[in-house]
Structure of Oxysterol-binding protein:
Amino acid sequence: GGAAIGCALRGRRLTGTTAADRRTTTATARGRRGGGGLPVAREGWLFKWTNYIKGYQRRWFVLSNGLLSYYRSKAEMGHTCRGTINLATANITVEDSCNFIISNGGAQTYHLKASSEVERQRWVTALELAKAKAVKMLEESDDSGDESVSQTDKTELQNTLRILSSKVEDLSTCNDLIAKHGTALQRSLSELEALRLPPDSTDKIKQVNERATLFRITSNAMINACRDFMLLAQTHGKKWQKSLQQERDQRIRLEETLEQLAKQHNHLERAFRGATVLPASTPGTGGSGKDLCCPAKGDLSDEDDDNNEFFDAPEIFPMPDIMGHKRTGSNISGTSSDISLDEQYKHQVEDTKKEKRTRIPYKPNYSLNLWSIMKNCIGKELSKIPMPVNFNEPLSMLQRLTEDLEYHELLDRAAKCESSLEQLCYVAAFTVSSYSTTVFRTSKPFNPLLGETFELDRLEESGYRSLCEQVSHHPPAAAHHADSKNGWTLRQEIKITSKFRGKYLSIMPLGTIHCVFHSSGNHYTWKKVTTTVHNIIVGKLWIDQSGEIEIVNHKTGDKCNLKFVPYSYFSRDVARKVTGEVMDPLGKVHFVLLGTWDEKMDCYKVQMGPGDNGAEARPRAHEAEDSRVLLWKRNPLPKYAENMYYFSELALTLNAPENGTAPTDSRRRPDQRLMENGRWDEANAEKQRLEEKQRLSRKRREAEAARATEDGTPCDPYKPLWFERKKDPVTQELAHVYKGGYWESKEKQDWSLCPDIF
């Protein structure tokens, strides 16, 4: 009986080891297929557009963990990935029965074709589900996922490993003692069995002897299992340590190579400027120099071409040296000025009734080693990384959000429209106009502190007033409310997420914008598109907008679909192109919109013919020009804007000091004021002080909440001062809505409820 049980235990141990090996093998294979050991959502063959010579080529695609990767063949999956696109920031567009497009911020565009309409639909469904999950994971990411492992964490990990190793040794010693005492027990029982004892006693001794034998066999099985575990851990531990060291060495080599590349690029660009006279151009003419002899379909780059990387960073904004902000290699610099800071700007509190300022201190010419800061930020959320003010412009994110109102007159005109479809055209133009200020604005705004506010009172001059408040710190979220006596209200809550991808930076605004017209009750909603900043490490910075916007009138059912076309080096189209269609609830197109997000938007009325039906209607060539209406045109930049961060006329006034504003207003932020005045070293020190003060406030709130939980007493979480979180009846989303009281407090100059954040 004991031998049979021993065989069974040994067999079970061997079987368990084999199953573990199979699980390890399966996990390894799954890691090769899906990446990171995560399950593959979908994989299979698709046809990918490569270029006009080779056309569509068959490729093996794998969808896993929010990433779509492709290979030349299934056999390549273990060693060579030809390309990967992140679905969290991608747009998925269906062209026809078998074709669909995946575009990611203009940096990558895949034109794909399935073998059948059913297969195409399966892929699109899987991609949409994966994108939704990826966006959700992006929203729920917390601080811990983006923080690097500190030296304390490494020490703690090493101590834990040492403790585990000592515990395994203790277990082995205990097993040896069990085996020793078990053998002695069996020997004693055998001697006892040899004595002449009554028959009943002999039977009991035999039972005890069998049980002791089973105990010894079980102990031996456990000893063997522990020995196998230690052997497997030691073998794989050495492999993992070796692989980790190789990855570290490779990362160091890559960092050194990229830094050397940045230095070489800087040297070559300087040599080129010294030997060549660049043609003069104005900021408004950028983007027209293209290779017109080469037609395009999306992104022609593919792994089949050897010169792909040459086209990844087109310089579409040519500017002479005297035209301000230049980025070369690993330095950030601006145009220096012979005018002193004191002469450029004097601190004078500006009354809203007086003339607005038209200039700010010129940007100093400070150099900064960009790579030393950015090399540790790849793949991270930039709002959680402390950055020096050298990367900033002297405005906060709240002020940038207020800049959406620069072309508020479009909403004034929309409020006077009797036709909801014509009104929708102006709302669409207003949506596009908010991006016009970004074309040369390559610096980032200051991240607002929790509770920071910004007001813009233009009630007398322009008929509106606006209020923004930072309502959340992680994730960063700002609420905005604007009212106009011309008959409209605009509100929004925007969460800004950004990821540094190495060559480019993706900025993804999350949240819904609402516009309500008082007289008609028309309620419009839409979302923002993805902004991409290219050439982060090497070359001139340039900005692109890409994606689609759907503007919906929730009262009438009218819709407008806007498409921001990503820049393509080979495209014949004008750069920064935007197209749109205005449709009634039945899908019938009434107006077609065409223009660029940095220049202007035109509207064409669709003339329906006898054979036209709904969405297939388009303006005819001979009728298009007759029905063209200029909806919006960008205002020219102020003189010497290139020396003032490319600020528009409105942006130049936003940080001017004003009397009577709240103590939490962005105009009162000291580090931002110091940076505007050119005192960047002091601004960096002040920025660190403010961030540390904010961290202490957050820890104090967390400690109070923990004490309240222990005591069982109620503890209210942080609540914004001027906004409250409600469920929107139209979109069913939770959003912060203005609850009133700010302008009344300003009139009374009662700011007793405002927190001390500066």
Remarks:
- Residues 1-38, 142-150, 277-353 have pLDDT under 50 and may be disordered.
